[in-house]
Amino acid sequence: MNAVLYLGIAILIVVASLLSILAVYTVVEPILKAGRDGAKSVVARRATVIAKRQELWGGVTASPYTTSYYVSFEMESEDRVELEVEDTDYGLIIEGDTGILSSQGDTFKGFQRQQLKAH
Fold it and tell me: How far apart are CA 59 and CA 66, in angstroms?
């Protein structure tokens, strides 16, 4: 009986430790990313929107789901990058749009759509 109790406590400690590590990573990683990106200069370049996607995560027990929004861009050099964007930007950007993409490291700073010239 004592062995089962000790095993249960050990499992509980391991699970609690893993959840604590995950919680710390969830808080610390965005701060580290902001520091890395903040040290880089803002780059503006011509790009075309090639794809958009959403990622739904969370929803464990009583916590609500969270949606992350991503847009993939292709530059004139044919390099591609996928950046996380705010929901408001996601709603305004359409696949096929061409314009000026501003980013700082892996951080989306803005997208200025260029109007097509009428003939």
Answer: 8
DSSP state of 18: H
Check: CB of residue 89 under 8 Å from CB of residue 102: no
Quick check: 3 pLDDT over 70?
A: yes
Q: Is residue 59 within 8 Å of residue 65, measured between CB atoms?
A: yes
Long-range contacts at 85-90 (CB < 8 A, ≥ 24 apart): 90/52, 90/54
Question: pTM of whole model > 0.90?
Answer: no
Residue 119 in this model has a pLDDT that exceeds 60: no
Class of domain 41-113: mainly beta
Cβ atoms < 10 Å from Cβ of 101:
23
CA 76, 110, 34, 41 dihedral sign is positive
Return the CA Rg of the chain.
21
Q: How far apart are CA 4 and CA 96, in angstroms?
A: 60
